[in-house]
Amino acid sequence: MERWKGRVALVTGASAGIGAAVCKVLVEAGMNVVGAARGVEKIEILANSLHDAKGTLTAVKCDVTKEEDIYNLFREIKGKFGGVDICVNNAGISYDKTLLDGSVAEWRNMTDVNIIAPCICSKLSIESMRERGIDDGHIINVNSTSGHRVSGFAEVHFYAGTKYALTAITEGLRQEMRELKSHIRISKISPGFVETEFFTRMFSSNEEKAQEIYKSRMFLQPEDIANSVLHIISSPPHVEINDILVRPTEQAS
Ligand SMILES: NC(=O)c1ccc[n+]([C@@H]2O[C@H](COP(=O)([O-])OP(=O)(O)OC[C@H]3O[C@@H](n4cnc5c(N)ncnc54)[C@H](OP(=O)(O)O)[C@@H]3O)[C@@H](O)[C@H]2O)c1
């Protein structure tokens, strides 16, 4: 991890769950982390709690469904820190609707957050790395077991579609980097159930259902996924970890 000290990581969806945990471990490892989300106040609270850590956390307000917000985010990073060395595309959402019940607005929103935003952030991060001659940068997409199999949980069927797309996009980007003879690495992490705000947000109109899910089984903790990020970025230059598929021990499918 020594080589990452003082360097810059962007983490989207930094205001809660996995994103907040990833920010914490990267700041503790000495990185200058830019955490982006709409709920910027929560990132500022986290930043204050990390005041004595080796690195820093800077909160930037960004709605990743808004292209201009993402461009502003990258302009701010360039102005303050020079550019991005690691990009963790973590922001992601699901609604609680089956394909038969879902609305076009919800499908568009999931597409924007779960697919389009990681594409824009990856493209701009790689541009930032290449214009500064950075050849050891890293893109990490937070995918899901839903990017690997279609579960019987009908409410996540469209979400699974977005995560399957992210599976294809992550591998496509990896191949494009090899084509360029670049050593920038492309990875993803595919978690099963993690105890975050994900299901509370998904079932925002039915809090009981979210609580039922949280009580139904053993969950991974956000720190487990943050540790996978550390594992990926601390691997030696000749090792590109393409995916870490991780489930809670009690998760069957
Ligand atoms: N929890 C699980 O069981 C699980 C399992 C597999 C994969 N994942 C994946 O893990 C990632 C993180 O999810 P989580 O579990 O940590 O969920 P979470 O606790 O609900 O956090 C979601 C994060 O995404 C951000 N976000 C949502 N919409 C956004 C938007 N329009 N613009 C900017 N940021 C936005 C939220 O920030 P604001 O609302 O403040 O903007 C929040 O910081 C997601 O990609 C999810 O698909 C989660």
From TrEMBL:
Signal sequence interval, chain numbering: none
Alphabetically ordered keywords of this record: Oxidoreductase
Keyword Oxidoreductase in record: yes
One of the record's GO molecular function terms: oxidoreductase activity, acting on the CH-OH group of donors, NAD or NADP as acceptor
A Pfam family hit: adh_short
Annotated transmembrane regions: none
Protein family per UniProt: Belongs to the short-chain dehydrogenases/reductases (SDR) family.
Protein name (database record): Dehydrogenase/reductase SDR family member 11
Organism, scientific name: Armadillidium nasatum
